[in-house]
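Researcher: We plan to redesign the surface later, but first we want a full-length starting point. Tokens attached.
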């Protein structure tokens, strides 16, 4: 090495520049490449977690999007189903409303009818008149269609009842009003004509009707001069209890009788009465069975009791210990003292007065209940003394005897005169035996008791 001399300084040796061979230069380049690769790998490794995180969030986002899209689709489907359900329910509601409206329309009364009873009696025929009196519905303007009649939902006609304002000495009005209010009012029953149903309406005042009635039926027409009223309007109708020869044919216009003797015109039998279930009968029904005592009943006034008294005495005389005992119940309105005395004497003369019980029940339900407990019923009439109730007498009203409808309605066995049997035989609902005189009456009553 060369030395450099500097003034005032010591000479210093300078290093020679190093010279690299080709191999050394190639080795250096390789080293740089490795370093670069290592740095690239390190960068890549550093980037991998970031990519993983990015991929995770990307997948999560996709999943959420899929979930939200699925939820939205489900929501859309639910909305669609709810819409369909709402539409279906709306359709069902609409159908139900239409059916209800149709049913209400069918249940609306097509017209109203009034019954008038201007007397303080004849209450026992009102219920049957409502259910049985034949009326020309079409002529009265009541819209009755064949289709409606053929279905179970028959048209409804409301029947209101107007009772007398004058209470007689019998005072029977209050008892029937009680029965109507508790058991009939508002009820709906089929009528005998099979065309309409009858709804028992209200008790009204015949001097001040508030409804435009299609028809008015008088149930006591022949108790007063009814013809002017009947002929005054084509919507007025009558119930007649008998017929008098002095009447002309105009009396038969829009009139109906209460027994088959007037079948050439119009008739119905008033056999609809309160029904008493066996469970509600008084304990007397059980007592009758245990004591083997049968009730032989007579209903009506002005009866001659000779035949019944003799028949009772005959039965008691031959009765065996195992045979049932009898009680004779006489149903009638209060008698005059002389009539009561004559009746008592008749049974007393035959020695059977202790079997007799007089029954007067002014309250309608009590009277009908007592009648329903009869085991044998006899009108105790004959064509000689009671000609007005028979069809073949020369002077005849052809009236109904009141005990026959009750025997039919309550299915009570009957003892009737042989001349009366052909009139009612097709309408009876229980066994019936006939008689012609006292002897045959005694035989028939014994036979009937034995049969029971």
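Model: Full-length starting sequence:
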């Amino acid at each position: 090495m060369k030395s450099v001399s500097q003034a005032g300084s010591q000479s210093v040796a300078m290093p020679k520049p190093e010279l690299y061979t080709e191999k050394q230069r190639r080795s250096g380049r390789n080293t740089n490449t490795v370093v670069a690769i290592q740095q690239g790998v390190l960068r890549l490794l550093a980037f991998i977690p970031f990519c993983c995180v990015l991929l995770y969030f990307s997948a999560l986002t996709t999943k959420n999007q899929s979930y939200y899209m699925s939820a939205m689709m489900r929501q859309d489907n639910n909305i669609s189903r709810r819409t369909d359900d709402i539409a279906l329910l709306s359709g069902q509601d609409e159908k139900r409303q239409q059916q209800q409206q149709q049913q209400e329309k069918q249940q609306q009364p097509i017209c109203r009818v009034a019954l008038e009873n201007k007397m303080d009696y004849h209450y026992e025929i009102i219920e049957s008149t409502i259910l049985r009196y034949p009326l020309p519905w079409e002529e009265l303007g009541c819209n009755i269609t064949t289709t409606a009649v053929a279905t179970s939902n028959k048209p409804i006609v409301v029947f209101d009842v107007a009772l007398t304002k004058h209470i007689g000495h019998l005072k029977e009005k209050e008892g029937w009003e009680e029965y109507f209010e508790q058991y009939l009012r508002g009820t709906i029953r089929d009528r005998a004509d099979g065309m309409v149903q009858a709804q028992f309406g209200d008790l009204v005042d015949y001097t001040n009707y508030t409804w435009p009635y299609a028809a008015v039926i008088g149930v006591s027409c022949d108790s007063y001069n009814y013809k002017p009223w009947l002929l005054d309007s084509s919507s007025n109708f009558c119930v007649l209890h008998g017929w008098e020869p002095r009447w002309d044919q105009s009396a038969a216009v829009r009139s109906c009788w209460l027994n088959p003797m007037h079948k050439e015109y119009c008739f119905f039998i008033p056999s609809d009465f309160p029904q008493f279930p066996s469970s509600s009968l008084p304990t007397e029904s059980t007592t009758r069975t245990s004591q083997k005592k049968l009730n032989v009943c007579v209903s009506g006034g002005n009866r001659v009791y000779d035949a019944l008294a003799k028949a009772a005495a005959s039965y008691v005389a031959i009765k065996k210990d195992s045979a049932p005992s009898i009680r004779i119940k006489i149903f009638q309105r209060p008698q005059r003292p002389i009539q009561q005395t004559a009746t008592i004497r008749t049974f007393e003369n035959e020695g059977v007065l202790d079997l007799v019980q007089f029954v007067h029940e002014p309250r309608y339900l009590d009277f009908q209940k007592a009648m329903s407990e009869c085991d044998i019923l006899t009108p105790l009439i004959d064509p000689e003394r009671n000609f007005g109730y028979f069809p073949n007498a020369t002077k005849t009203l052809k009236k109904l005897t009141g005990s026959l409808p009750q025997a039919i309605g309550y299915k009570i066995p009957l003892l009737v005169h042989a001349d009366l049997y052909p009139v009612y035989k097709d309408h009876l609902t229980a066994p019936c035996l006939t008689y012609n005189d006292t002897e045959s009456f005694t035989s028939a009553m014994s036979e009937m008791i034995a049969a029971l």
